[in-house]
Amino acid sequence: MKKIFLFVICSFLLHGMNAQTVKLLTSGTKTSMRGLSVVDDKTVWVSGSAGMVGRSVDGGATWTWMTVKGFEKTEFRDIEAFDKNTAVIMAIAEPAYILRTTDGGETWKTVYENKDKGMFLDAMEFWNEQSGIVIGDPIAGKFFIARTFDGGQTWQHIPDANKPVADSGEACFASSGTNIRKLTKSEAVFISGGMSSHLFIREQKIKIPIVQGKETTGANSIAVKNKKNMIVVGGDFNSRDSVAGNCAITHDGGRSWTFPTTAPHGYRSCIEFLGKDKWVTCGLNGVDYSSDGGDHFTWISKESYHVCRKAKKGKAVYFAGGGGRIGRMDAGY
User: Fold this and answer.
1) Residue 154 forms beta bridges with which residues?
2) How many domains does the chain have?
3) Would 4 be classed as within a structural domain?
4) Helices (H) and strands (E) in the chain, counts
5) Rounded-to-integer distance, Cα 286 and Cα 301, Å
6) How many CB atoms lie within 10 A of CB 167?
7) What is the CATH number of the domain that holds 260?
8) pLDDT tens-digit profile of 187-225?
9) CA 310, CA 328: separation in Å to the nearest integer?
10) Which of 90, 190, 222, 299 has its CA 20 to 30 A from that of 174?
């Protein structure tokens, strides 16, 4: 009887560990989404190709889709939303634009424009509703960085002398809006990929032991638990099923790195910290979940998603990808 009891308990615990699933909420809209911002459990914004922005205020049950007038062929690779009415979207390249709405997306105001040759924005991050940062690919060998201190209404370039220097063939991937993250209340950290892959913290430039050496390889996303504990994911987006060098973990702010015992099951474009030791990551061939600090990742969905984000004020986790595909983690974590 004791053996049977222990078997039942162990089976229950094992099932609980792997009970997470991703529920597909909607698909079919003609846009590929890499921008995702989850204000709370009910309020979700997405942005993508073909000038498309989507919004739900009922937890993904229904969606309002809008094409930003004058930007019908634009790729909006990142979005930051502050409530059901206010959001900032980032248009990647030549020219690069940042737009802002205060009426739920009915109208948009251009708050930043850059027509410089080679301009390519990759991601935005906000510390709060006022202070934010945007990063772009290197121009003249230095990464582009601009700041806002008024909720994205105006943007200022940082001085050229303060811009981080890139290696030859090194850039950032605009794959999920998560290659730059807040590290503290006033500092940010970002990652690069391509021929070289680095972690940048203030003046530090730290090599990341992730697959690199080609334009299609390198770090795509970083998630931060605290100043010491971070996980980086990426790989080669031309080899969607390859697990080689697709995930690296640091517990000391980048001074040393470890690798998962069970890595995510392919190239991954985004990773998100969920709380305690729980993380979720997604890519072209599905979604992986870890409840042990990233040591073991379990393949919980084979639906393709580009980006995953946890609610800033809540626990809901949403996903967005190609073909208008939006999902939500359906079980508690």
Assistant:
1) none
2) 1
3) no
4) 1, 29
5) 5
6) 16
7) 2.130.10.10
8) 999 999 999 999 999 999 999 999 999 999 999 999 999
9) 10
10) 299
Residue 79: what pLDDT? 98
- Output the CA torsion 52→50→178→136 (10° steps): -120
In a domain, 274, yes or no: yes
> What are the respective helix, strand and coil percentages of the chain, to the nearest 5?
5, 45, 50
Write out pLDDT tens, residues 309-318.
999 999 999 9
Whether residue 10 lies inside any domain: the answer is no
Strand stretches in 51-128, DSSP E? 52-56, 64-67, 76-81, 87-91, 96-101, 109-114, 121-126
Indicate the average pLDDT of the chain. Answer: 94
pLDDT tens track for 4-36: 434 333 433 343 445 799 999 999 999 999 999
Residue 221: domain span: 31-329
One-letter amino acid of 54: G
| Residue at 156: amino acid letter | Q
Amino acid present at 171: A
| Percent residues over pLDDT 90 in the chain | 92
Q: pTM of this prediction?
A: 0.94
Task: Decide if 21 is inside a domain.
Answer: no
Residue 68 DSSP one-character state: P
Which residue type is seen at 16?
A: G
